[in-house]
Design brief:
Blueprint lengths: L8 H14 L9 E3 H7 L21 E4 L3 E5 L3 H17 L10 E8 L2 E7 L4 E2 L7 H16 L2 H6 L10 H17 L13 H6 L8 E3 L8 E3 L5 E4 L6 E3 L2 H11 L1 H10 L4 H21 L3 H10 L28
Antiparallel strand pairs: 1-2, 2-3, 3-5, 4-5, 6-8, 7-10, 8-9
């Protein structure tokens, strides 16, 4: 199997010039630069797809700013090519259902045999890592979660979006307990905090059958486009989307914007206590495990967000039959 070529600035310039020539525009074309240059400086003028995928494992840049309005992403391998092609179609399917912007693809093709490129619009704004989400921004997130529930799962599957089985909260809890003990010895975390989630509690918050929806599955802070006034203006990073457990997106929001905002948004979207608390504990266990693996400032910040105390935690008993319609949207298998 031949190794894929390494994307360089010359590769990108040639590709951009070819794209411009197709529409009758000559000359050197707009400035191109790696996405990671803006990330290291803090992206305040605008963010876009590929911010977290800008560098391949070998260190080569796979995402490039093209002028001030577009971003070019170069798939580094065949698997990424499949995801990028699926993402283009999925964004078109999602766009009518959500109240926030989704990037628009303006061109795509192959930059190397079998390897796709996509040229996308750049969404103006910052990220949730830079700006706090306001109360109105929480309503934007609620609209996002609600819209994802409305996307027909069968249509998403025809585009190649995979199904993902719900994670075992009990298995994750056990991993988190072991990680918390290591962190406690390093004086990084109070392991007793995890005693709030017992094995029976983890079983109580198991994913309920028939509640799978389209899940973004990567609602990290860098994928939320946030304006200076706290509104959520767009969502990036759709290549990891699955049909699965909606609590995963609630968990992602808990890490990105804090547990309080995440649960308020999910409740506004119509989710009941069970999926909200499941998402909360997925986030908390994940951040403890992650901090044990990466003792850095980013991991500590995410843990603090996920472990924000919330009023819903006072709920100590849920009906055996769940929380009714608020537990999630039914699978559209019928």
């Amino acid at each position: 199997m031949n190794q894929a070529p390494t994307p360089t600035a010359d590769t990108v310039r040639r590709l951009v010039r070819a794209l411009l020539a197709e529409v009758g525009v000559g000359g050197p074309g707009p400035e191109v630069r790696p996405v990671t240059e803006d990330v290291s400086e803090g992206v305040t003028e605008g963010v876009t797809e590929g911010v977290t995928e800008g560098v391949t494992e070998g260190g080569a840049h796979s995402a490039w700013w093209v002028g001030s309005r577009h971003v070019l992403r170069l798939a580094p391998d065949r698997a990424a090519t499949v995801r990028r092609r699926r993402e283009l179609r999925l964004r078109d399917l999602v766009r009518p259902h959500v109240p926030v912007a989704v990037p628009v693809g303006v061109a795509h093709g192959e930059w190397s045999p079998g390897l796709v490129y996509t040229l996308d619009t750049r969404l103006p704004g910052g990220t949730a890592e830079e700006y706090d989400v306001s109360a109105v921004g929480e309503a934007d997130l609620a609209g996002l979660l609600r819209g994802l529930r409305e996307v027909p799962s069968r249509q998403a599957e025809t585009l190649g979006v995979p199904r993902a089985a719900p994670r075992s909260l009990e298995a994750l809890r056990r991993r988190a307990v072991a990680a918390a003990e290591r962190l406690a010895r390093a004086d990084e975390f109070d392991a007793a905090r995890l005693h709030q989630l017992t094995a029976p509690g983890a079983a109580q918050f198991a994913a309920q059958p028939g509640t799978t929806v389209l899940v973004h599955h990567a609602l990290r802070g860098e994928h939320l486009v946030v304006s200076a006034d706290g509104r959520v203006r767009g969502v990036l990073g759709w290549s990891d989307a699955v049909i699965g457990d909606p609590a995963e997106d609630i968990a992602g929001l808990a890490v990105a914007v804090g547990s309080g905002a995440a649960v308020r948004a999910a409740t506004l979207a119509g989710y009941g206590a069970r999926p909200c608390l499941r998402g909360l504990w997925l986030a908390r266990c994940d951040t403890v495990v992650h901090l044990a693996q990466h003792l850095d400032a980013d991991a500590r910040t995410r843990l603090l967000r996920a472990w924000e105390p919330i009023l819903l935690e006072r709920v100590t008993e849920l009906r055996e039959d769940g929380e009714g319609a608020g537990d999630g949207a039914p699978d559209d298998e019928e």
